[in-house]
Amino acid sequence: MRKRKLNEVKTAVSEMFELPKDIMLNLPRISMIGNNQMLVENHRGVIEYTPQKIRLNSTIGVIRVEGQDMDLKNIAAEDIMITGVIKLVEF
Amino acid sequence: MKLWNYIVGYLVIKVDGLSLEKFINLTISNGIFLWGIKRSGYTTMTACISISGFKKLKGIARKVRCRVRIVDKRGLPFLLVRLRHRKMLLVGLTAFLIILYVLSSFIWIVDVEGNVKVPEDKLLNALAKYGIRPGAFKKGLDISAIENRLVIDMPDIWWVSIQLKGTRAIVKVVEAAQPPPMVDKDTPCNIVASKDGIIHEMVVLEGQPMVKEGDTVKKGQLLVSGVVEDPETLATRFVHAMAQITARTWYEGEAVCSLDEGLTRRTGRKVVHKFIDMGRWVVEYQKGDIPFKYYEVEEKKVPFFGEGRFFPVTMIVREYYEVEKLSASASLQDLKEIAQKKAMEDVNKKIPSNAKIVDKRVKYDMIEGKEIKATVYVEVLENIAQEQKITVE
């Protein structure tokens, strides 16, 4: 209950001051280049990785990516970069 | 980033185990950077890792029960370790760099641009005298002093610029402009026709015109008189007549082509042979059989370092063109063309370079059924004014 209220306040504040929400609300920031590169910042670890299917943990739940010949090009504590043919992204 | 990884060196590892995701998560949370992760099967994957990261990996691997093996070592440090056992290679590399540096501090090519009247040899000799020649050391050359000296030494050159670009010295020259020849206005003279023709345009600057536009004139005929009579006082005055007289003139050229000589035509197929001529040795580096029955040969020589330069290396390109022989009857039209071309060449030799061609006609004659004679009549516009001194009695 309390956490939800805090989130609502944070959303209102970030709207009011036009602050980026990914920092205020601790959300993952996902940027894609075409269908062959995807950068997920602020993730919470890899749940599953196969060349056809990748599942990442994040604050808003599991992000599921499906495609072909996918590699994890870079992995660091905060961000992860997926390359390959991406066909589907699901939350 | 990639370049940095290469410089510090990295390892390609193969991880075997059931919980590979856990392995990835644990390495990340321990602050070890992984990249280029590729899963090749259900239980195996390859990844790249830094050398320091690999050292911390042991504990993690034990925890998640994975087996880690090194597949490849990449980067500069590993390359250097390998090179340590091959000292001569390093010696050769340094020797190469030193030789390259030493050779690049000499002038190997001297290029002269902009000279028209002054012969290149003379300029090159003068440059060599002050130290700009192939094989000269670049350091210690006072370029601006040499430029000044050259201008002083050679009165027919007004300006010199010497640029050293790599091993090439580019010498740009501006020649002294010759003053136009003085018109000797004191000697009276007439203008006469140098050729037969019909006058097309007359521009008389000085003197009394004796003919008008459209007149037919003969060679030697008086066109502009230097003897001017004042219409009022009737006093006679001698002037130096000056005029530009453009006239239509005709030139004629002819050529004969025999029907007997088998006419050939290139089919478009060719074979190229290349040789490298190094004075004493000739190296063939492109040679094949000539699959043609009849062919013509053209040879071209391409010097590698310019004509007569430091290294006498020339590339010889020999081109073999396939030709087919044409029968006499089929080739009549071709023969006419060839005869006409030859006739044009003949007439072009006679036409002065400043003349403008206005009209052209070609006539063909058969001579006793054996030869074709082409006659070309060319009408040109040219200046026919010629000065002629007046001798006053």
TrEMBL record, chain A:
InterPro entries hit by this protein: Spore_YabP/YqfC, Spore_YqfC
Superkingdom assignment: Bacteria
Protein name: Sporulation protein YqfC
Name of one Pfam family that matches: YabP
UniProtKB/TrEMBL annotation, chain B:
Key words of the record: Membrane, Transmembrane, Transmembrane helix
Pfam families: YqfD (PF06898)
Residue intervals passing through the bilayer: 88-110
Name of the protein described by the UniProt record: Similar to stage IV sporulation protein
